[in-house]
Records
---
Amino acid sequence: MRRRISAQDILDFWVKSGTIKCASLLVLHHGMVAIRHRVGMARFTGEQREVSAETVFTIASITKTLTATCFMQYVEAGDFSLHEPVARVLPEFGQNGKEAVTFFHLLTHTSGLPEQVEGKDELRAREGQLDEFHARICRAPLLFAPGTGYQYSNCGFGLLARAVEQVEGRRFGAVLAERIFQPLGMKDSVLGAEPRWDERIAEIELPLGQETERAFVNSRYWRGMGAPWGAMVSNTEDLALFAEAIRQGGQGRQARILAPATVATMLQDQLATLPALAERRDRRRQGLAWILQGGPRPSPYGDLTSPRTFGHGGATGTLLWVDPEQEITFVFLGNKEGSLPPEMFARLSNAVVAQVSG
């Protein structure tokens, strides 16, 4: 009989074969550590260094789930409502046909905004700051009328963060630290990393031929700017604390960060409420920021997770998912720009479910 291949075996093979440089995996089952595995090189040019408990990663678009969670705290407090126009809070956004875009549209990628701002490469090359990104988002025309289509968009999450900044009068990274990281005990997480973090951050492997174009992801500029759509720095342990709080209806080990009703709303298929998208069989199942199981296959969450599974990936080879029915929390952090194909993550996810529940 063939020996069952473990999740650890898969990660060891990925590193040995050169598919990825390093990986850090943490899996909780019923709230307890079931798998913890680190393998490979966190630094592979210049001074080489193996991944360790001290390594932190640029988690890319998983950042969006924390930005959204923080924003929803302000919805709970009555500062915003989901279906009010964004331009009511950010008047500079109400141009080029965007007057009807709501916060709901931003959170569900149905605003009509493009994925990236125009001229993003030029902005990054000259180390443009968030204020410049925001100005270009506000000037951008829509690709379609709000609520009539789906376009994954970084721009929307920049606007969510800016709305919070309007209330607080300070940078979003500081708000996120106070309202999410500190209450949950996430001591190894930051949005807008200072230079003291640099020695701990895993180097990101860049796509062949794009070493110059994509060099910004390893730069002091990008780490320090703290883009709220994809530049947070963290590790598997901290992200598991966050994911477990969401799994338990907003209740972390040390503090509550959201009400159960708010979490339940974030994890509903919100596209089912939009007439233009509800009946489309090829669409994602999309919550508020969270991507739900049951959309197009292959799913990175695999084939053995329940229909209630939710999560998010990132373009630096990262993936977080939670299966509330089987009480499994999965956090994988890697350092490969461009992420990994969903079928590869599906194989890893399947092995994890079999391993912890078998």
---
Amino acid sequence: MIAAIRLPGVLQRYLNGTVDALLSVESGGHGDFARPVREEALLPADSLSWRVLKNPIALFVGGTAAVILELAEPKVRAGVWEHSSFRKDPLNRLKRTGLAAMISVYGARSVAEPMIARVVRMHAAVQGTTAAGISYSANDPPLLTWVHATAAFGFAEAYNQYVRPLSTQNLDDFYREGAPVSRLYGAVDSPRSIAEMQVLFASTRARLAASPIIFEFLRIMRETAAFPGPLRWLQPMLLRAAVELIPGWLRETLGLSEYYGLRAYERRVVKWAGACADRIVLPTSPAVQSCLRLGLPMNYLYA
């Protein structure tokens, strides 16, 4: 078993601040995961989901890959691009999405369930027509299934490829754990295994299509400072790492050539960063604060 890394105080505070910044939205902070004391989350603390989503590298890379997959589906793409702040404020939109994922996994039930209900109500107002004249609604169950399934795929594969290898059983556990939470959002057919995820890819394949919007998203993410200065050099690598998670057949469909993927040395750097991040206890992170809420040791998810 690999032990947690103990860092000098100054470096520890710096990394805490970096992760806080990645989850803090303009409306203020990233929520209080330490309360109500002893209240359980929607997922148990011993779940694989708690261990995977504690890792900021897996969270950023997996979340970015999920957005690419969302934008490959024309109806989802229209909803995201026309009815959200992605074009004007992509970083805060990603932060809000990341914060919602954190609350869904780690937040106390009395916090998570009302938050999910608010998201469902907001989605009810998101309706429109794609450039091809096809109507869509954000609360359409098949679209919600695609969004939640691709998020699960992104987080699981990011952890699997850049942090620590996961077995087929691990991956199945991850999908199974998240499916009940996805249903609360209205994604009633979310995959419960890696095999079911592959079936969803196959059934959706014919609808997925290239779009300049995907390249615009990647450009915006390259130019938007998501990391503080000393760590900004890592951001382009993490974006390319996200592209690498997209299945090969879909990268070809979308026109994501090797140029957009990782170089060999970059893959080693991302894996090093992911492995280190999995061993550094961040006291102010949602994962650690939620462990403390339940009376668990600060290093519970790192032991």
---
Amino acid sequence: MDSYINDKPFYEKSLSKLQNSNQSLGYSICIVDGKSSCEFNFGEKGFTQFGAVVEDHGVWGDASEYFATDKYAKMNAFLLMAFPALAKLANRNVRKIRSASV
């Protein structure tokens, strides 16, 4: 299960940071075979998140059915408590990347 969140300004600045670091994965994007695009395109342009997919869990008609399987990685108590703080840090980093000069 995934949601698509990369807006173009964030994507462009993240891509620049990723390329400058000589990495192919980071900042919520992935470069596959030198290609990357923030437009959802089923891979022909290198959709940025497909390169990070490591396992296919299939297609589910109802999210609750998937959540009930052993394929869904449930958060433990520590992660449930830490998630709000981690989300706040992640959002701060996204704002910082968006506002950075390329």
